[in-house]
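Example record

The entry below shows one chain as it appears in the dataset: sequence first, then C-alpha cells.
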Amino acid sequence: MTGGGSGPDPDKRPDWWLVAVPADEDDTRIDRFLRRLVPGLTQGPVEKMLRSGLIRIDGAKAKPATRLVAGQQLRLPPHLRDAPVPDQGPKPVVATPQLRSQFAEMVVAEGDDWIAINKPSGLAVQGGSGMTRHLDGMLQALASGEDDRMRLVHRIDKDTSGLLLLARDRSAARRLTRAFQAQEMEKTYLALVTGAPPPSMDIDNPLMKGGGAGGEMMIVSPEGQSAYTEMQLIEAAGRRLALVALRPHTGRTHQLRVHMAHVGHPIIGDGKYGGAGAHPGGTIAKRLHLHAWRLRLPDGRMIEAPLQAHFQQSLGLLGLAVPGADWQFA
C-alpha cells in the first residue's frame, strides 16, 4: 500500500485539449493563433491563461509574443474546445459579382505571392464599431477558404488612397510583414499641401497619442516614438499650394499628416490636423489629398498606383502634374 501522494498530475488529465501546430502557423505568435482558433476569445483571457500555465507549449509556459514552431503541441483547457460562437454583429460581406468586379478594378500589379491594389479614398482597411464596408471584409468574402484568403500586411488610413500590398497566403504574409518591419519596402506618397515648402525637408519629430477630444489625435512630443519623414517638392502653384512627395521611414499613426501640419504645410482636406487652413475653398475638393503612390519591393520592382479622380482634378485646376516614371527622390 502506498503512502498518501500529492494527487493526480494535472498534466496527465485526460480532458486537456491537445492541438498540434500546423505547418502554415509556423512562426505565428501564440496569442494570435489562439484568438483565431477559439471563436470569441479575447486578448485578456489569453494572457491570463498563459501566465497561470493553463496554456502550455510542449509542457512549458509561454508568453503572448512567443512564436510557434510547426509540430509543437499546445495543451489547452477543455472549456476552450467547447466555447460558444459569439454573435458576430453585422452580417459578413457577400461575394457578389459586383464585389468581385470592384476588387478586380483595384488590382494594379501581381506577383507570385502578393497582389497590389489601388485602395480608393473612403474605404477602411479594417472594420470598426458598426462598420460594415471595409477591405478586410471584402477579402474574407472573396476567399474560398481560410487557406485561400488574401491577407493584409500593412495599412493606410481610410481617407488615404493608393497602394496596398496583399499577401496571397499566411506564409507570404509573414515574409512581407517582416520586409515592411525591416524597412525593405520603400514607400512614396504624393500630397497636395498648403503654402510654399522648400525644395526638400527632413522631418524628424517624435509622435505620440494625446491630442484632441478623448486624446485620440497624434501629437509631436519629445516623449513620443521616433518618427522620420523625407519631403521633396515636386511642383508649386504660386505660394499657395504645392505638390510634394513624402517618404516615411517609420510607420506611426497619421505620421505624414501630423508632420506636414507641424511644419506649417498641412495636407489639403486634412481638417483634423490642418484645421481650416487645410480647406482652401474654391473648386479644390475638400477630400484628403494624400495618395500612396509608389512602392519599391526588396527585389527592386517598382509598383505605381494612379491618383484618384478628386486628386487628379485638383492638380488639373492648379496646372500641376504627376511626375513621370523616371522621377525619384534626389
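Notes for this example: The longest strand covers residues 228-237. DSSP finds nine helices and 15 strands in the chain.
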